[in-house]
Design goal:
Blueprint (H helix, E strand, L loop, with lengths): L35 E11 L4 E7 L11 E8 L2 E8 L8 E7 L7 H4 L7 E5 L16 E7 L4 H6 L3 H6 L2 E8 L6 H8 L11 H4 E7 L10 H7 L1 H6 L9 E6 L2 H13 L13 E4 L5
C-alpha cells in the first residue's frame, strides 16, 4: 500500500458560474418526479462527430464516490428520458462532468449532442456503481482497463486522492477505433500535474497506455490481445499481471468486459463488489 499522504485541508475547485438559460426552466412541462433535479449546462466540448464531454451544475446535497454513475437525461415530449452516465469529475469538484458517445439513432444521445451552455439537463438524486475503491482489496498496482467512453469513471478516479493512498502505481488503458477518439483520456492525464489535489502525486504514479483498432497509430490492437500476449507489459517495461499485488477495474463495451473478465479470471483474479471486496470489478451501465 502507498505511503503517500495528502494534507488534511483539501483544496476546492473554484465555483462555476451558471449562465442563464435561454428560456425558463420547466416551461410547458409537467413537474419533475421527486427523484430528479433540473441542472444547467456549464460547458460543452465536442472531440469528434461521435464523442463529446459536458459539465453541469451540481446540487449542494449531491454526494458520490469516484467511479460511480448516475442517471441523467432530457425532457422529451414533456417526459424525462434518462440513461446511466459515469461521473467523470472527482467527488470534490463543484461541477459534474460527463463524457458521451453519440449513438446512431440513440433516443437520448441524438438529442443530447445538441445541448449548449445554459440548457437544462435532468439528473437523478442517487448515484451508484461498482467501480469504486471500496470494492477492491489493497495492493501495489491498480490497472484501469477501458474502451471508448468507458474511460469516464477513470477520469474521476485519477483525480481522487484516495486512489494514490491505496495504490503505488496506476496504469490506465484506453482503446478506441481511431486515434482521434483517444484525445479525452490524453487531455485528462496531461492535466493531472495541474490538479489542485493530486497534482503532486499523479504525475509520478500514473501511466497511460492508449491503443486503437481501426486506424494507423503508434500502438494498434485490442487491449485484451495486448495483455494476453504480454505485449503491453513489454511496451511499458513492467511485470505481468499478478493478483498478489495487482487490482483492476474494467469499463467499456459488453464484449470487451466479457473478454477482459476472462483474461483476469484465467490469471486467478477474483471479482469483487461493494459487499465483498476482491481483485477486480466491472461496470455494466451504458448510454444510448
Amino acid at each position: 500500500m502507498s505511503k503517500f499522504r495528502f494534507p488534511f485541508q483539501r483544496a476546492t475547485a473554484s465555483k462555476p458560474s451558471v449562465v442563464a438559460p435561454s428560456q425558463a426552466p420547466g416551461a410547458d412541462f409537467a413537474p419533475l418526479p421527486s427523484n430528479l433535479t433540473a441542472e444547467r449546462v456549464l460547458h460543452v466540448q465536442h472531440y469528434t462527430d461521435r464523442l463529446f464531454r459536458f459539465s453541469i451544475t451540481r446540487p449542494t446535497s449531491f454526494r458520490f464516490r469516484a467511479g460511480e454513475f448516475v442517471m441523467i437525461g432530457l425532457r422529451t415530449d414533456g417526459r424525462p428520458l434518462l440513461r446511466a452516465y459515469s461521473i467523470a469529475s472527482p467527488p470534490w469538484d463543484d461541477a459534474l462532468e460527463f463524457y458521451s458517445i453519440i449513438a446512431p439513432n440513440g433516443p437520448l444521445t441524438c438529442r443530447l449532442k445538441h445541448i449548449k451552455v445554459g440548457d437544462e439537463v435532468l439528473m437523478a438524486h442517487k448515484p451508484t456503481g461498482t467501480l469504486v475503491l471500496d470494492a477492491l482489496t489493497p495492493a501495489k498496482r491498480l490497472f484501469l482497463f477501458s474502451t471508448g467512453t468507458g474511460f469516464a469513471p477513470f477520469a474521476s478516479l485519477l483525480r481522487e486522492p484516495e486512489t494514490y493512498v491505496k495504490f503505488d502505481k496506476v496504469i490506465v488503458t484506453h482503446t478506441c477505433r481511431e486515434e482521434s477518439e483517444l484525445r479525452y483520456s490524453e487531455d485528462t492525464v496531461n492535466a493531472l500535474p495541474d490538479d489542485p489535489l493530486v497534482g503532486e502525486a499523479a504525475p509520478l504514479r500514473v501511466t497511460r497506455y492508449a491503443t486503437c483498432t481501426q486506424d494507423t497509430c503508434r500502438r494498434a490492437g485490442r487491449i485484451t490481445d495486448l495483455v494476453s500476449s504480454g505485449a503491453m507489459f513489454d511496451d511499458l517495461a513492467i511485470a505481468p499481471l499478478d493478483r498478489t499485488h495487482d487490482r483492476a477495474m474494467i469499463c467499456g463495451s459488453l464484449p470487451f468486459i466479457h473478454d477482459m473478465q476472462l483474461v483476469l479470471t484465467n490469471a486467478g483474479f477474483v471479482e469483487g463488489s461493494n459487499a465483498s471486496p476482491a481483485d477486480f470489478v466491472v461496470e455494466k451501465a451504458f448510454v444510448g
